[in-house]
Specification:
With 167 residues, this protein is of the alpha+beta class. The chain is built from 5 helices and 5 strands; from the N terminus they run H-H-E-E-E-E-E-H-H-H.
């Protein structure tokens, strides 16, 4: 005689497993996409000024002083229509040193500037590099897509390494 199965074992069906699998896929996919969107959003604030320079004031700044979170110096224009300024402000980072000269783009409507050129572009996209690394963990662990996770992780590492080398 075959023993009777417990009631809780009989209630699980292949349909509920499919629904749970789809739910996990949808939730982890949403988290991964949100991480990537947040990385692009955080990067775009500076990247738009560096990448879309038409009509913006471009030039160089020689860093004269640095505070706890910003550095500033005299702006020398190199584009048509740009005005010399006695003071523009650069965000202080490891890559900005007193006494050095940097190519910059001045943000419209103020005295804030961002680095331009390849170093500025790569530095602006650093938040996206971090988001790629974080999203790779979600894709590998939550979605069980190891190849896609490796692509995301290697892209993030390449972006961060390139920014580190150029800045």
């Amino acid at each position: 005689m075959i023993p009777a199965m417990p009631a809780h074992a009989m209630s699980s069906s292949p349909a509920s497993a499919v629904v749970l699998r789809f739910g996990r896929f949808a939730a982890m996919g949403t988290v991964a996409v949100l991480i990537l969107v947040a990385g692009v959003w955080a990067s775009w604030g500076s990247a738009q000024h560096v990448m879309l320079t038409k009509g913006r004031e471009r030039g160089t700044v020689e860093v004269a002083r640095c505070g706890s979170d910003a550095c500033w110096g005299r702006f020398t224009p190199s584009s048509a229509g740009a005005q010399p300024r006695s003071r523009v402000v650069l965000e202080k980072s490891v890559a900005v040193e007193r006494g050095r000269t940097y190519t910059v783009v001045v943000k419209p409507g103020g005295d804030d500037a961002v680095r331009s050129g390849p170093a500025g572009v790569l530095y602006a996209w650093v938040p996206l590099g971090g988001a790629l690394l974080l999203a790779s963990v979600v894709v590998a662990g939550g979605l069980l897509r190891t190849r896609a996770a490796w692509v995301l992780a290697l892209s993030g590492v390449a972006l961060l390494t390139a920014a580190f080398v150029t800045v």
